[in-house]
Every structure is written in C-alpha cells, then in structure tokens.
Amino acid sequence: MSSPFHRRPISDYFISSPLVALLYPLHQALLRLRGSPRLPPPAAHPISVVCISDTHTQKWPDVPDGDLLIHAGDLANDGSVREIQAAVDWLRSLPHKHKVVICGNHDGYFDPRSRLEEDRDETPNGSFVGVSASTASIHEIDDRNGSRIDWGDIHYLQHSAVTLEFNPPDTTSVSDAKTPLTHAHPRLLTVYGAPQIPAIVPMGPEHAFTYPPKFDAWSGTVPQETDILVTHTPPQAHLDLSPVYSTGCPNLLNEAWRVRPLLHVFGHIHESAGREPVFWDEAQRAWERLCAARRVRARYSRVVALGGFFRDLFDPSGWVDAARVIVYGVLGVIWAQIWGGESPGGGWMVNAACMYRGSGKLGNPPQVIVL
Hints:
Blueprint: H1 10-16, H2 18-33, E1 48-52, E2 68-71, H3 81-93, E3 98-101, H4 133-138, E4 155-156, E5 160-166, E6 187-194, E7 197-198, E8 210-211, E9 228-231, H5 250-259, E10 263-266, E11 274-278, H6 282-294, H7 302-305, H8 308-313, H9 316-338, E12 347-351, E13 367-370
Helix pairs in contact: 1-2, 2-9, 6-9
C-alpha cells in the first residue's frame, strides 16, 4: 500500500469516489473565482507574511522579503540541537522584522520524549519521564529557560501565543495643502503556534509531539483572539492530499472553524504545498462533509475501492452536498465579481512545506500572503 503521505494516482481518486474526483477541480475553480477571502482593513497598511515549513536542515536561497516570517516546523531531520541551531542561525540572518517558529515532528529536542541521547543532559532530574503522548501534545512544557537553542530575535511558540506590532511605513511626503495628512495607526496581530500531529502511521519515539489519530488534541486549545494560527499538521480536507486520502486532523479543522483565523499556516504534507482561500460558509461545510465521509475509503484495496462508483451513485446526502458546493460557490462568485461584495470573515490556509515531495531537496517556493 502507498504511503499516506504520498499523492495517489488520479485513477485511485476516481475509483474511490468519482463524485468528489469530478467535483474537486470545480470546487477549486470557484474558490479562486471568488477572489481574495480577506482584504486589509480600510485605510490600514497591508502586512506581508512570508510562510515556509519543512526545510529539514536546508536553506531556501532567496526568501522573499516581508513584514513577518513564519516557519511551521521540521527545521531539522534528526531533531538534534546541532541541526536545529543551524536552522535557527539561518532564520536569524534573514531581514524580516518579526519571525515566528514552531517545531514539527522531526524537531525532537523540543519534546523530551523524543530527544537524542546527546541532548538528554538538559532534562532536569528526569522530570519528564512520565510525560504521556497526550500531555506532550496539548500542553506547554516550559523547558525554554534551560534550552540550549539561542533564538535571538525569533519568537518560538509551543502551545503559546505572541502579539506582534506592525508600524505603518514611513510616509513623509507632503501633498497639496488642501489634502489633510493622515497617519495610519500600528496594526496588531496575535499569532498562536502548536506542534502536535496525528500519528496516522506508526511513528517511533524519534517523532515529536505525536498523538493517536482518534485523540482530540485540539478542542479549546487555540485562543479565540488568534489572528494567525500556526500548526505543523494540516486540518482535514485542506491541502492534506484530500479528497479521500486525507492526512489532516478533523479536530484541528473543528478548532479552525471555532476561531476562524485570518491565516492558518502549516506544513508536514510535502505534496500538498500551496494556498487555499477559505470562506467559512455552506460551500466549505458541504465539501468538508464529502471529504470526511469518504476518508474511510483510503483504507480499502483498489479492488474493494471499485465499489466507490456504486456507493456514490446511491448516496443522496453526498449528491445534496455536491449541489451545495456548486450552488453556494456560484453564489459566492456572483456576490464577489458581479455585485462587488466582500466576503466578511474569510481567510487563507497555507501549506508552506518547502521540501519537494520525498526528493530530499527544497522545491516548493515560500508562500507570501498579504493581510
């Protein structure tokens, strides 16, 4: 059986669910036609957010400039202090005023259960010996005071948040005397970061912050005031190899619906790198229901999966949801492109993985989002 982290042939998607395989490109086209899901506030200066993830000890040669740089985890391969500090030193050398980093499952030093032997002398008196997978996944274990990582000007988040201030650009030019000068106020953005990932395949102790797939490691953990959510795992049904072969977390998706951040940055799934607008509406709910209902089919062999055609044919709720995706998507396009309306409360989901598939080389470019 193929790895759940690798994209399947297109034929597998049609075999498992011809309905969602045909609906997927139409759904994506409607999302793009609706335009930007969130525009900067009126009279406010835009904030440029540069998103990267899964660099695995390597350095992207030309990271775009911006106001905020976010790294969504997997700085390292073996999780050692050596590798992590080298990656941090590279990030510190970049010119972005604000920088935020979380860890991923390959950054084992940050999870005491996953530290290499060479780094275990930092664990005081074995105080983390009894840490369970669930505890390490949803609670902050404050070992930062004893950390050997020199973060410099980087904000490292591990089940924690930071509020950043973005000052307007210096505009000293003077217009004609009849036009009053306006001075934009600083903008504030609250960023929350958490590293935990569902262990959808057996993972050894070297993989940090893993939790059993059916364990809810997310509900109620993200502050409601979060503007930018940074996780290592994707949410289910968004840039996670969906439909059918989803690797994202359904509980994280529910948490994203509760908070509805302006921007949700993640990585982990190299083959789904990219960006996706989200509108938190009936079209999105219907699409997510279709993906969730078909996720169980990923476990079937191709022979058994051939029944997907008949299951879709006699699935009235699936056809209703497919119609909802199309109807509400078209209405969204009409509202945005013909009536000129803005979609209130939308946002972006970004899979910022820079590692190109399983090549061992960086190939997916950084994603830049303007808020």
